């Protein structure tokens, strides 16, 4: 591919082009955007941590909600902060006014999506927090801010490979018949980043 990078024309292979593009995508849109371009899909980058004993534990990853069998379809929305400690929230939660359940030792993404979507009321939002908590509500607080996916870094009590929020952070899914929001955002983001980075000679 013939491209202009920093004012100079050069021929870049697809590998070299990705090497130039991925750092920009990561800075602008986070690691999931870079992973989606690198892998050609919405697949996240899996990192790992090393314990004191020296064993490697894979970091929890976001679950593709379309693979979870429930009556109603949810799509991953993102990692959001809890709002109970924010001054203007009056102590209200990010997912307030709905229902919740806590399953110490057992919570999974499927359990939460089923709890929020398969009852007599289908809640628009399902959020997992602190590995074991599931929160369901019809609205997400405007005070809740989206964070990079890796900030929701706690695995679910019932399946440590699945991301279940964090300390005052929620892994949030939204009831939807549409494709997952993250995939659409990554495709649009990749196109914008390419236009910013590269001018065709």
Automatic annotation (TrEMBL):
Domain WSC: 73-176
Main location: membrane
Classification via PROSITE patterns: WSC
Keyword Membrane in annotation: yes
Subcellular location: Membrane
Residues of the signal peptide: 1-34
Entry keyword annotation includes Metal-binding: no
Record key words, sorted: Glycoprotein, Membrane, Signal, Transmembrane, Transmembrane helix
Membrane topology qualifier: Single-pass membrane protein
Protein name: WSC domain-containing protein
Species assigned in the record: Phialemonium thermophilum
Lineage: Eukaryota, Fungi, Dikarya, Ascomycota, Pezizomycotina
